[in-house]
Amino acid sequence: MGMNKNTILAWATFIMILMGLLLIGLGIYRYADVAGWGFAAVGVGFFAIAWVFNALKGRV
């Protein structure tokens, strides 16, 4: 099974969503102080990048 551009972007999107959820979860449950806000903000940023990767599927 060969991986084309769309398959690679789909895997990248999936990994970015998992990392975003992990970072938001760390921000909520592990770090209750100010550092948690940073973790959650970076997790939302991962979601934004995953959205861009998903939008690029079929266009590159």
UniProtKB/TrEMBL annotation:
Keywords: Membrane, Transmembrane, Transmembrane helix. This is Uncharacterized protein. It comes from Flavobacterium cheniae. The chain crosses the membrane at residues 7-29, 35-56. The keyword Membrane applies. The keyword Transmembrane helix applies. InterPro entries: CAL67264-like.
